[in-house]
Amino acid sequence: MDAIVATNLTKVFLSKKRIGRLPFTGEKVWTRALDGLSLSVKEGEIMGILGPNGAGKTTLIKILSTLIIPDYGTAKVNGYDILKEPIKVRESLGVMLTGERTLYWKLTGRENLLYFSRLYHVPNHLARKRIGELLALMGLEEKADELVENYSSGQRVRLNFAKTLVNDAPIVFLDEPTMSLDPQFSRHIRNVIKNLNEEKGKTILLATQNMLEADELCHRVAIVDQGRIVATGSPSELKAKLSERKSIKMIIRNLSLKEIRAENLPNDAEWTVSETDDGQSILLQAIVGNEDGTLSEIVNMVTRHNGEILSVTVDEPSLEDVFLKFTGRRLVG
Ligand SMILES: Nc1ncnc2c1ncn2[C@@H]1O[C@H](COP(=O)(O)OP(=O)(O)OP(=O)(O)O)[C@@H](O)[C@H]1O
Ligand SMILES: [Mg+2]
Question: How far is the CA of 58 from the centre of ligand 2 (A)?
Answer without folding.
Answer: 4
